[in-house]
Amino acid sequence: MKALIRRYSKLIREKPEKFEDLSKAIVRARMPITTQRYLALAFVYSAVSAMVGAVLGILIFTILIPFGKVTPLIARILPPEIIIRNFKILSIVYVALGASLLGIISFKFVHYLVLTYPFFIAAKRKNEIDLYLPHAVNMMFGMAVGGVRVYDIIKCIAESKVMCGELSREFRIIVDLVENFKHDLFDSMRFVRDTTPSEKLAAFLDDLIFVMSSGGRLTEFLRGKSEELLEEQEVSFESYIDFLGIMAEVYIAIFVLLPLFLLIVLVVMQLIGENVINLYRLAIAFVLPVATVAFVYLIKSSLPTPKVKIEEELEEVEKPIVGVRSGRAETFKIDEFGRLLKKLKKIVVYPFKEKTIYTLQFRILSFHFALIAIITFAVASKFLNLERSLILTVSAVAIPLIILVELRGRTIKKIEEKIPNLFRELAVLNEAGLNILEALNVISSSEIGIISKEINVVRRKIEWGTTIHRAFAVLGVRIKSDLIAKIIPIITKALEVSPTFKDAFITVARYADSEVRFSKRIKNYMFTYIIITYMSIFIFLFVVYIVIKSFLSAFAVNTTAMGSITFTMNIDTIKEVFFEISLMVGLFSGIIAGVIGEGKIESGLKHSYVFLMATYIVFKILLR
C-alpha cells in the first residue's frame, strides 16, 4: 500500500493536471483522504475485484459454459482435426481467456466506480447545499436583526446539522479553521468559498466577505439576499410543479394504461396458444413495486424545499415505579411488572386522553389498529369465509386510519395557513412596543383558529418559568409540521438575543407565506392528474369487465376448435391473473396519487382503498 502511495505521489508531482479534477472532487466531497491514497485504494479494490472476476470466470467457463459447448462455434474457425488433436490445450486457453476477460472487465468497472464516487458525492452535496441555503439565510437574517455577531451566526449554522444538512458542514469548516487552526475569519470563509461544490454558496460567501470587509450593513445585505433566494425558490417551485405533471403523465401512461393494452395483447396470444400470461403476472408483480418506490423517491428528493425536524427532547421522562423492601430500606428495586402495566395502560388510553388530533402519534396507535384487526377477523371468521373476513378486517382498519390521517393532515394545513398572519400580527404588536409575552397574550385572546390554543400553551409555559426557546420548541414538537420545524430556529434565535423581533418575524411570515402558497399550488395543479388517475383505473376495470364478460365468455370451455386452429382458453386463470394485477395497479396508483397530490405516502391511503374496493366489486361480485 505504501509503495502504491509513493508511486501515485510521484505521478501527481509529474503530471498534476491529470489528477486535478479528482483532487478537487475529493475536496468538494469533504472526504478525509489524500488524492494519492485514494488512487492507491482504488487500485487495490480494483485488483481484488479482478481476482474475484477471474475466479468467477474460471467457474463459469469450466462448469456453466465448458469448452465442449462452444466447440461447434469454434469449428467454424478452426479445422475439426486441430480441435480434436489439441482439445485439452484449447480448453485451458479457452478458460484462461474467459477468466482474463472477466478479470479485466471487473478491474475496469470497479476502478471507474471508485474514481467517479467523489464526483457523485460532490454533486449530491451541491444539490443539498443549494436546497438548504435559502432557509439558512433566513435564519442568519433573523439572528442578525437580533444583534448576533457574524461569527456566532456562522457557528450557529454550523451546529444546526438537523436544520441545514450539508450546508452546516461547510460552515463547520469555517469554525474549525478559526478555532482549531487560528486562521482569520475572512481567510477561512475564502477557503470554503473556493472549495465548496455549490456555486450559490460560493457567491453568497464572496458577497458576505465584501460586505463585512467594506463595513456594509449586514442586516440589509441578508435581507436582500433572503428576498433574492426566495424569488429563485419561486422559479424552482414552478419547475417542480411542471416536473410533477410530467411524472404523473409518465406513471399513468406506463403503469396504468400499459397493463390495459397488454391485457388485450395477451388475451390474443393466449388464444393462439402462447402461454405467457404467468410471465406477465411475474413481470408486473416485480416492476410495479420497484417503479413505485423509484417514482416516490424521485418526487420527494426533487422537492425544492428542505426537510427539517425538531428533535423531541422535551418529552417528560417517565418515572419508574419503585418498590421498597420491607424492613430496613437500605436498597430498592425497580418494579418492572408495575412499570410494564403502567406503560400498557398509557398506550391503551392514549387516543382517548389526547385532546388534539394533530398531536397523535401513529406509531402508538398501531397497537390499537392491530387490536381492531384481530378482533374483527376473529368475529368475522365465524360468520364469513376467509376472503370476506379479510376484506372486512382490512376495511375495519383502513377506514378509521384514513379518517385520522385526513383529519390530522387538514388540521395541520389549517394551522400552517394561519402562521403567516400570526407572525405578521406579532411583528406589528412588537412595533407598537409590546414584548414577546405581552404580544402572545394579546394574540392568544383573539380568535385566530386552532393555532390560538397552541399560542396559549406557549404563553403559559413562559409564564410558568420555561425559557422562550423551549416554549417555542414545544410548539414544533406538538405540531408535526415541516413549515413550523423550519421557522422555529429563526424565532428562537431572534428571541434569545433581543426583545425586538419585528424584522425577524416579518421574515418568518414572508417565508411561511411562500411555503403555504407553494403547497396550495401543488394541490390545485395536481388535482387534475388525480382525477385522470381515477378515470384511468375505472376505465381499466370497465374494459376488463367487458373483455371477460362479453368477449371471453365465447370461449368458456377450455379448448375450442375452429377449422385447423385450436384455441386454448382458461377463463378462471385469466380472471385470477388480472384480478391480482388490478389489485397491484390500484394499490400503487393510489400511493403515487397521494405523493403527487399532497407529498405524503399516507395521503394515498384513501385512493388505494377506493381502487382496491372497486377492483374487488368488479371481480368478485360483478364477474362472479
Protein described:
The protein has 624 residues and is an all-alpha fold. Among the domains are: 123 residues, no CATH class; 106 residues; 176 residues, no CATH class. Helix content is 78%, strand content 2%. The chain is built from 23 helices and four strands. The strands form two sheets. It has a two-stranded antiparallel ribbon. Strands 3-4 form a two-stranded antiparallel sheet. Helix 2 crosses helix 6 and helix 16 runs antiparallel to helix 21. The protein is flat.
Summary, kept brief:
Helix content is 78%, strand content 2%. The strands form two sheets. It has a two-stranded antiparallel sheet with strand order 1-2. It has helices spanning 2-14, 20-28, 35-64, 67-74, 80-85, 87-145, 150-158, 161-164, 166-179, 185-195, 199-213, 218-271, 277-301, 336-353, 362-380, 386-431, 436-444, 451-463, 468-478, 482-497, 502-551, 571-598, 605-622; strands at 322-324, 332-334, 559-562, 565-568.
- Annotation field: number of helices: 23
Query: Mind summarizing the main beta sheet?
Result: 2 strands, antiparallel
Strand content: under 5%
Shape type: flat
Determine the fraction of residues in helical runs and give it as a percent range: over 70%
Number of strands: 4
Radius of gyration of CA atoms, rounded to a whole number: 33 Å
Which helices and strands appear, and what pairs or packs with what?
Layout: H1 2-14, H2 20-28, H3 35-64, H4 67-74, H5 80-85, H6 87-145, H7 150-158, H8 161-164, H9 166-179, H10 185-195, H11 199-213, H12 218-271, H13 277-301, E1 322-324, E2 332-334, H14 336-353, H15 362-380, H16 386-431, H17 436-444, H18 451-463, H19 468-478, H20 482-497, H21 502-551, E3 559-562, E4 565-568, H22 571-598, H23 605-622
Antiparallel strand pairs: 1-2, 3-4
Helix pairs in contact: 1-3, 2-6, 3-6, 6-7, 6-12, 6-20, 6-21, 7-9, 9-10, 10-11, 12-13, 12-21, 12-22, 13-22, 14-15, 15-16, 16-17, 16-21, 17-18, 18-19, 19-20, 20-21, 21-22, 21-23, 22-23
